[in-house]
């Protein structure tokens, strides 16, 4: 049945950002509250969609289609399944929290900052709900604009360099994807009788593309998504972007934007090009494992807390890519839930680093030590979130990593326990770099006299972190609430892959 709910969800932040332009920039308090109100309304609408969603169905729901470019059969078509629903919820959940977190840290041009945050939220939602490849590409590119300005205007000392690097890396990959979209749509015109970028129609055409052509289309899509993840060795833009971005930008970048790459792999690479997926899965999994180990080892030697968390993302996203290309129900379910877990845990880590930076104006680990005596509430939250990122049983990180390793061990495509053994070392290394950071920052004596005036977390900061910690524990203790949402979708995708690659699986 056609529903307008997704369109409402998409246009709430768009309309809100436009209305925001009519506010006087001097009225910062009203701007902040209005931006927060718009993002909260979007979250409420996403919850309505969640409660009306039927998780037993593998088909797209809440469909809404409007003809756009009739001559090319391009349309505004939106819809969600279990995977995209979870990511939409993550987006609408994190956006108001990041706006609250920036209440004190962003003081320059608040109106423009809030405008870009709402515009970015709309673009991210659009990526996850678009069911037309042309529409998907529009949102994929639109996301670059606000993120470029968020890093470039409100970032650190090397913000221009980081913003340009982020833009160029993503744009280069996007052009490859655009070529593949046009190529696939032209090929579809021979099968369907007309040019089509409709994802549902292309799901029927893509698997039948001759393998010698399909592999080039697959690589064009995959490289674009791998840059966004980022997968080793295409990760070099990420540490710069994270370190230079303001706290709100880092949270959205780690929490949502990186997941657009892994989402694209699940949404397009697997069902559109199943034969090529199986063909390249071992090589991609090797790169994922290298990323897991490399990201963790580099994180160990960081002196800057924010850069340490940034490199931990390279490691954690390697886990997600490994789960996707192991091509088992457990591994893909683990990859999907780990996308959510990483968004919560790493987003919370960036928030905590940002909160302490606002007080001391430094992220150097050596500057701290013994702050548990001064800020016990902060130290408690940092411990919970760090253990979550490590993958402690009972917290959310364990669920995703366990399912990914279990599914990878059972994988017929990888057919080797080496992937699991080397991948599992990432869990050990995560404990090393995160607990080592925690020990140097929190425990011991206060040796720096400048820390004596350090104040503990404010009610505003607690308002941001408590909801995230609730979900960290919820997913860790009762993960079926979230796993059940995406199970039918992942089974359907795997069925498509196995149907067209039965000789391999």
Number of discrete helical segments: 19
Q: Helix coverage percent of residues?
A: over 70%
- The portion of residues forming beta strands comes to under 5%
Trace the largest sheet across and list its strands: 1-2
Order of helices and strands: HHEEHHHHHHHHHHHHHHHHH
Oligomer status: single chain
The stretches of 5 or more residues where confidence is low (pLDDT under 50) are none
State the major sheet. 2 strands, antiparallel
The count of strands amounts to 2
- Gyration radius (Cα, Å) is 22 Å
CA-CA gap between termini: 35 Å
**What spatial form do the alpha-carbon principal axes imply?**
globular
Mean pLDDT: 87
Structural class: mainly alpha
List keywords for this structure.
single chain; 505 residues; mainly alpha; two-stranded antiparallel ribbon; 2 strands
Structure description:
The chain is mainly α. It has a domain at 298-505. Helix content is 74%, strand content 3%. A two-stranded antiparallel ribbon has the order 1-2. Strand 1 and strand 2 form a beta hairpin. Helix 2 runs parallel beside helix 4 (110-129), helix 7 packs antiparallel against helix 9 (211-228) and helix 7 packs across helix 10 (237-244). The chain is globular, with a radius of gyration of 22 Å. The model has no long low-confidence stretch (mean pLDDT 87).
């Amino acid at each position: 049945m056609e529903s307008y709910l997704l369109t409402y969800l998409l246009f709430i932040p768009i309309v809100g950002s436009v209305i925001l332009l009519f506010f006087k920039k001097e009225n910062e308090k009203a701007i902040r509250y209005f931006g927060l109100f718009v993002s909260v309304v979007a979250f409420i609408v996403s919850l309505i969609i969640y409660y009306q969603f039927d998780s037993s169905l593998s088909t797209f729901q809440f469909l809404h289609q409007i003809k756009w470019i009739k001559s090319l059969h391009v349309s505004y078509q939106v819809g969600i399944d279990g995977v995209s629903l979870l990511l939409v919820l993550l987006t609408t959940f994190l956006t108001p929290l990041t706006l609250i977190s920036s209440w004190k840290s962003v003081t320059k041009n608040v109106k423009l900052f809030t405008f870009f945050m709402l515009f970015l939220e709309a673009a991210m939602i659009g990526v996850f709900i678009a069911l037309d490849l042309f529409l998907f590409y529009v949102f994929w590119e639109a996301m670059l604009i606000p993120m470029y300005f968020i890093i470039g205007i409100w970032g650190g000392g090397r913000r221009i360099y980081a913003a340009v690097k982020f833009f160029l890396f993503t744009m280069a990959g996007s052009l490859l994807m655009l070529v593949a979209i046009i190529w696939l749509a032209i090929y579809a015109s021979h099968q369907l009788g007309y040019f089509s970028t409709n994802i549902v129609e292309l799901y029927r055409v893509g698997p039948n593309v001759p393998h010698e052509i399909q592999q080039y289309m697959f690589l064009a899509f995959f490289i674009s998504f791998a840059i966004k993840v980022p997968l080793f060795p295409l990760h070099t833009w990420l540490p710069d972007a994270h370190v230079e971005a303001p706290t709100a930008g880092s949270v959205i970048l780690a929490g949502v934007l990186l997941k657009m790459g892994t989402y694209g792999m699940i949404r397009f690479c697997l069902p559109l090009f199943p034969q090529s997926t199986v063909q390249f899965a071992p090589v991609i999994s090797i790169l994922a494992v290298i990323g897991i180990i490399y990201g963790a080892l580099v994180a160990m030697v960081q002196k800057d807390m924010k850069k340490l968390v940034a490199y931990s993302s390279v490691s954690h996203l390697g886990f997600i890519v490994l789960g996707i290309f192991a091509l088992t129900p457990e591994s893909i379910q683990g990859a999907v839930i780990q996308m959510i877990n990483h968004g919560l845990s790493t987003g919370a880590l960036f928030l905590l680093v940002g909160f302490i930076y606002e007080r001391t104006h430094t992220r150097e680990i050596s500057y701290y030590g013994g702050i548990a005596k001064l800020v016990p509430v902060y130290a408690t939250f940092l411990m919970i979130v760090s253990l979550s990122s490590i993958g402690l049983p009972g917290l959310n990180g364990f669920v995703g990593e366990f399912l990914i390793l279990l599914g990878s061990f059972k994988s017929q495509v990888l057919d080797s326990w080496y992937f699991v053994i080397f991948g599992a070392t990432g869990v050990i290394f995560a404990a090393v770099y995160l607990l080592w950071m925690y020990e140097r920052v929190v425990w011991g004596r206060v040796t720096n006299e400048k820390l004596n005036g350090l104040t503990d977390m404010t009610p505003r900061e607690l308002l941001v972190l408590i909801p995230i910690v609730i979900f960290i524990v919820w997913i860790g203790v009762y993960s079926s609430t979230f796993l059940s949402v995406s199970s039918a979708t992942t089974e359907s995708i795997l069925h498509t892959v196995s149907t067209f690659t039965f000789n391999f699986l």
